[in-house]
Amino acid sequence: MSFLKVQDIQHIYFTKASATTALSNISLTVEEGEFVSFLGPSGCGKTTLLSIISSLLKPTKGTVLLENKPVSTSKNEIGYMLQQDYLFPWKTIEENILLGLKLSKQLNENTKSAALNLLSQMGLKGVEKHLPKQLSGGMRQRAALVRTLATEPKLLMLDEPFSALDYQTKLKLEDLVSRTLEVYGKTAILVTHDIGEAIAMSDRIFLFSSRPGKIYKIFEMPEDLKQLSPFEARNHEDYQSIFQTIWKELESLEPAKE
């Protein structure tokens, strides 16, 4: 039994004047502890599929099962990390990271202690009473990750969480997130436009074609590359050839320019 099973997903956006098929016939599985990426041209429905998997959006057709149960019954078991950190500017970092626990009625001395300990592991010890504006973008994203992990979700959804950061911070945060998810045995799905990021962080990459979004190809990363940190993976001997292969496939999916 697969940890996550996405079956025959189709999604159509309706307006008064038209119906646009965003996703067509999407079926995939993700195993427990696996890190997969969704990669593809803009408008191929990656974020729509992420929203369906996290049950924020009900598909027109198809089912999504997490541990053989509909995702609509698993809301507290799915964590979401976005491009923006969405920390409340008027709340301290401590108040922000405990918010998910509070809303899901899981806040107690043990869960609070675990969240603060995780904050410390993320290199943010001593910022508990700071406001978000006192932190850099990378620090805020780390705090947002702590808030997401504090509720102990079984599945983590990452929607371009590093794209707004400078390159050096992005590389450091990729390593930190990858290591943290491995330590906690988390399963994760990353939506990204960055081929290098997908290769460096993933076990498998799902390449989508657009209009309507379909799974075009699946790339399995070499076993020895999977064992490396994202930073080290970028220096692996196979990295460049995998990058070129995916690049060419992506180029073939882009609409021809007139």
Overview of this protein structure:
The protein is an alpha/beta fold and 258 residues long. Among the domains are: 1-34, no CATH class; 87-187, P-loop containing nucleotide triphosphate hydrolases (Rossmann fold, 3-Layer(aba) Sandwich). It is 36% helix and 24% strand. It is built from ten helices and ten strands. It has helices at residues 46-53, 93-97, 99-103, 109-121, 137-150, 167-183, 195-201, 223-226, 230-233, 239-253; strands spanning 4-14, 19-30, 35-39, 61-66, 69-70, 78-81, 155-159, 187-191, 204-209, 214-220. The strands form two sheets. The chain has a six-stranded mixed sheet, sandwiched between helices. Strands 2-1-4-5 form a four-stranded antiparallel sheet, covered by helices on one side. A hairpin with a 4-residue loop joins strand 9 and strand 10 (214-220). Helix 4 (109-121) runs antiparallel to helix 5, helix 5 packs parallel to helix 6 (167-183) and helix 7 crosses helix 10 (239-253). The chain is globular. The termini are far apart.
Quick overview of this protein structure:
It holds the Pfam family ABC_tran. By secondary structure, the chain is an alpha/beta fold.
Describe the secondary structure blueprint for this structure.
Blueprint: E1 4-14, E2 19-30, E3 35-39, H1 46-53, E4 61-66, E5 69-70, E6 78-81, H2 93-97, H3 99-103, H4 109-121, H5 137-150, E7 155-159, H6 167-183, E8 187-191, H7 195-201, E9 204-209, E10 214-220, H8 223-226, H9 230-233, H10 239-253
Parallel strand pairs: 3-8, 3-9, 6-7, 7-8
Antiparallel strand pairs: 1-2, 1-4, 4-5, 9-10
Helix pairs in contact: 4-5, 5-6, 7-10
